[in-house]
Structures are given as C-alpha cells and as structure tokens.
Amino acid sequence: MGKFSIVGLKVILAVILAGTFFVQLFMIPMIFIHESPSDGTEKFFQGSFLSYLFLAGLIIETCVYCVWKLATRVKRGTVFDPASLGYVTPIIIAFAVGALATLALGAIFAASTEIAPGVVLLVGGAGLLMIGISIIVLVLRQLLEQAAMTEAQAAELRTELGGVI
Predict the structure, then answer these.
(1) Domain range for residue 28?
(2) pLDDT (0 to 100) of residue 1
(3) How many CA atoms lie within 13 A of 141 on its CB side?
(4) C-alpha dist (Å) from residue 65 to 70, 73, 108, 141, 155
(5) What is this structure's pTM?
C-alpha cells in the first residue's frame, strides 16, 4: 500500500470512529430519553435495540482500532511480524460477538407480532453475513501467520548467507 492509500484509509477510519462515538454518546441517549414507549413490550424492544446499537458501536470501535494499528504496521513495513496477529484476532472475535448479538436481536424481533417478518429475515441475514466475515478474516489471519513465518525464515537465511559471505 502506498502512502496515500494509508492516509486515505486512516481518514475514513477516523470518520467512522467519530460517527460511532456520536451515535453512542448523543443519539442513543436522545432516543432513550425522548422516545418513551407506553407498554412493557415496546420498552423491551426499544431497550434491546438500543443495547444492540451500543454493542455494535463497541464492535466497530474495536475493528477500527485494530485496522488502524495494522495500517500503521503496513506503513512501517512490519506487518509480517507475528505481533500483527494480535491485531487480527480481536477483529475475528468482534465479528463473532456481533453475529451472535445480531442473531439474538433477530430472535427478539421474531417474538414480536409488530415487527414484519421481512425485517427479522434481514436481521438474520446480517447475522449470517457477519459470521461469514469472521470466517474470512480468520482465513486471512492464517495467511498472515504463514507470511510472517516465511518472512522470519527469509531473514534467518539472509543472516546465514551473510555469515558465509
């Protein structure tokens, strides 16, 4: 990746982070304060949805932080270091937790007669999509692990060759 790609990525990540913080710190409390459901069932659905939004924000923030750190490692040329794996694993865990939370939200919505079945299907599809993303990132982590091993072996061979010469 070039310098402009890294800068562009970090700008986008900063905007995403700012938007996530705005939703968590201002939008969710405003919805909670100004939207007061009349009965207990509606309160449960609203509380479930707002809790999901807050958790989704935490997941996004975790992923943004880890991608930022990985982009920094790419810029420095140290991405094929085993320490980079420590920034990929939280992304996998975050997407897995997000998938479980999304599927749980879909189950909560399915129990309601007021929520359209299409919405429940969309939420369930989003949960499955997040599982797929988690698996893709897991495969990419394994590729990074192999590349880090290959880089370490190449460095060791360079050292041995330097000693011979």
Answers:
(1) 3-164
(2) 67
(3) 19
(4) 9, 12, 30, 17, 29
(5) 0.85
